[in-house]
């Protein structure tokens, strides 16, 4: 090829953004959008301190308010949040929110999935099936018998089981402001788990009395997740926001490479 033709081709390549250098830069741009999904019995307000850290560090954060009536409804709400986010998304779920992000995380805009002391079900699994046969000696969450198709935790046992390391007045507020969790949501099964096709991260809460830490480690290993661990209760996203935010930011950097 003559020099003039090579020059013209190079100019055209630059104009179209197809040079190897430009393509590499584009591919390695950091992910700056995060979608946070809460679990059962609570709403999205518990993410406040994690939200503040991520915002301070330059992330665009959306907090999903799940109805927690059915898995299908929660996935639909989450997918709307993903669609509205700028660019690629890191999708984060706590507790039952891990089921939601496992189902919603197959969305093309999701670059990575983060589990915070969460259920990480495989195809056909639900919270109901995952908790059906607890290991001997494992803590039993104080879930009251369903009323009108909804579940609550025993108010008097909420702090000890869900939020043992949260400031007592905050833990009591969480207990008194419980969101009804639909039995249908509990039974909602995942069809195609995101962790089978997207990179995943998992933060184990080693003092969790809702989802046994051993079960968390098992689900994280099965998912092939990048695993970290912190001494925290099930409400680790409230009590240890810096540790939670770090895992999310690690995912944003790792999934963007």
Structure characterization notes:
It comes from Sphingomonas lycopersici. Pfam families: Abhydrolase_6. By secondary structure, the chain is of the alpha/beta class. The chain folds into two domains: 1-28, no CATH class; 31-255, Rossmann fold, CATH 3.40.50.1820. The chain has twelve helices and eight strands. The chain has helices spanning 3-16, 20-27, 48-56, 71-84, 97-104, 127-130, 155-162, 168-176, 183-187, 213-223, 236-239, 241-255; strands spanning 33-37, 60-64, 89-94, 110-116, 150-151, 181-182, 200-205, 226-230. The strands form two sheets. A six-stranded parallel beta sheet has the order 2-1-3-4-7-8, sandwiched between helices. Strand 1 (33-37), helix 3 and strand 2 (60-64) form a beta-alpha-beta unit. The longest helix is centred in the last third of the chain and has 15 residues, at 241-255. The protein is globular, with a radius of gyration of 20 Å. The two termini are 35 Å apart. The relative contact order is 0.17.
In oligomeric terms, what are we looking at? Answer: single chain
CATH H level of the largest domain: which superfamily? Alpha/Beta hydrolase fold, catalytic domain
Largest sheet: 6 strands, parallel
Q: Helix coverage percent of residues? A: 40-55%
Q: What is the count of distinct domains?
A: 2
Distance between the termini: 35 Å
The succession of helices and strands, N to C, reads HHEHEHEHEHEHHEHEHEHH
Q: What's the CATH C level of the largest domain? A: Alpha Beta
| Content-based structural category | alpha/beta
Content of β-strand: 5-15%
